[in-house]
Design goal:
It is an enzyme of class 5 (isomerase). Belongs to the pseudouridine synthase TruB family. Type 1 subfamily. Keywords: Isomerase, tRNA processing. Its EC number is 5.4.99.25. The chain is an alpha+beta fold and 294 residues long. The protein folds into 3 domains: 86 residues, Pseudouridine synthase; 120 residues, 2-Layer Sandwich (Pseudouridine synthase), CATH 3.30.2350.10; 63 residues, Roll (Archaeosine Trna-guanine Transglycosylase, Chain: A, domain 4). It is built from 7 helices and 18 strands. The strands form 4 sheets. Strands 1, 2, 3, 4, 7, 10, 11, 12 and 13 form a 9-stranded mixed sheet that branches. Strands 14-16-17-18-15 form a 5-stranded mixed sheet, with no helix packed on it.
Length: 294
C-alpha cells in the first residue's frame, strides 16, 4: 500500500470525489481521501491522502488556503457564481478607489453565511439538494478569517482577487458580499485554489500525469504535516510498547526538555514515522495519532 500525500491539480469538470475515484484506480487501493471539496468548475490544489496519511485529511481541512478568483460586478445569481441562474443585473457605477476601499473592509475576522448551493448539511440534508428543490433554509453564520485580499487586476466590471483565508471560507459568498457592499451585486466567474497550507500550484500534478507515470518523488511523507512538532526517536528495546500503542515514558525516547500539553513526532530508530504523542502531567508520552504502515 502507498502511504503519503500527493498534491493533485484538480481540473475543471472533476469533482473532488472523481479525483479520489481515479486515484484509487491508479494506485489499486481503496484507502484514499481528499482534503477539501472543490466545486466541479473550480481548479487548483487538492492534496490527496493515501494509506496511513488518510488520518491527516481532517487536519489539512483545518489549514489556511489561498484562492485566485475572478469577480464580475453588476450580476447576482442563485449560486453566487456564473454557473447558476442570473437573478438580477445592475449598473456598475463605482470607481476603482471605491472598490479598493470596500474590498479592504472584508479583511479580518468575521462571520459568513454559507451559500445554499453548498455541501453543508442541515437536518441531514445537503443544502445544495434543498436549493435544487427550490427551498431556502436558515443557515447559521460561521466564524472565518480573511488574512488578506490582493487585487491582481481590475478592469471594471471585472476584478481578479487573490484571497488568503481560513478554513470554511466560501469565495463565492465573498464575491457576492463584495458586490452587495458596492451596491451593484457581484458573482464569481472563476476560481483557482493556489495553495493549501504548504501545498502549492508549482508542485501539483494532474491526473493525466499520474496515470502516465507516477514518480515516487511526488509522494509527500505523512509526517510532513507535523514538522512544527519536535522530533524524538524511540529506542529499539521499546518497540513492543510502540506496536501496542502504549504510552512511552521519558527513558524510552531521546533526552528532551518536555512540556505538559506539547506534541512530539515519534520515530523508530530506523527512521520510520510512528505518530504524534502528547507529554502529559503524569510524565508520559500519550499517543494522539498513530501512523503504522500497512
Amino acid at each position: 500500500m502507498v502511504n503519503g500525500i500527493i498534491n493533485v491539480y484538480k481540473e475543471k469538470g472533476f469533482t473532488s470525489f472523481d479525483v479520489v475515484a481515479v486515484m484509487r484506480r491508479i494506485f489499486g487501493q481503496k484507502k484514499i481521501g481528499h482534503t477539501g471539496t472543490l466545486d466541479p468548475d473550480a481548479q487548483g490544489v487538492l492534496p490527496v491522502c493515501l494509506g496511513n496519511a488518510t488520518k491527516v485529511c481532517d487536519l489539512l481541512l483545518d489549514k489556511d488556503k489561498e484562492y485566485i478568483a475572478d469577480l464580475l460586478l453588476g450580476v447576482t445569481s442563485d449560486t453566487q457564481d456564473m454557473t447558476g441562474t442570473v437573478l438580477q443585473e445592475r449598473p456598475v457605477a463605482v470607481s476603482e478607489e471605491q472598490v479598493r476601499q470596500t474590498i479592504d473592509r472584508f479583511v479580518g475576522k468575521q462571520q459568513q453565511i454559507p451559500p445554499m448551493y453548498s455541501a453543508l448539511k442541515v437536518n441531514g440534508r445537503k443544502l445544495c439538494d434543498l436549493a435544487r428543490e427550490g427551498k431556502t433554509v436558515e443557515r447559521k453564520p460561521r466564524d472565518i478569517e480573511i488574512f488578506s485580499i490582493v487585487i491582481e487586476e481590475m478592469d471594471l466590471p471585472r476584478i481578479k482577487i487573490r484571497v488568503h483565508c481560513s478554513k470554511g471560507t466560501y469565495i463565492r459568498t465573498l464575491c457576492n458580499d463584495i458586490g452587495e457592499a458596492l451596491g451593484c451585486g457581484g458573482a464569481m466567474e472563476s476560481l483557482l485554489r493556489s495553495r493549501v497550507s504548504s501545498f502549492t500550484l508549482e508542485t501539483a500534478h494532474t491526473l493525466a500525469e499520474l496515470e502516465a507515470h507516477f514518480d515516487r518523488e511526488w509522494l509527500i511523507s505523512t509526517d510532513s504535516v507535523f514538522l512544527n512538532y519536535e522530533r524524538l526517536t524511540a529506542k529499539n528495546e521499546y518497540q513492543k510498547a510502540i506496536d501496542n500503542g502504549n504510552k512511552l515514558s521519558q527513558e524510552m525516547v531521546d533526552d528532551c526538555n518536555f512540556h505538559i500539553g506539547t506534541y512530539y513526532r515519534i520515530y523508530r530508530e530506523d527512521g520510520r514515522f510512528v505518530g504524534i504523542y502528547e507529554w502529559t502531567k503524569d510524565q508520559n508520552l500519550k499517543p494522539v495519532k498513530l501512523f503504522f504502515e500497512s
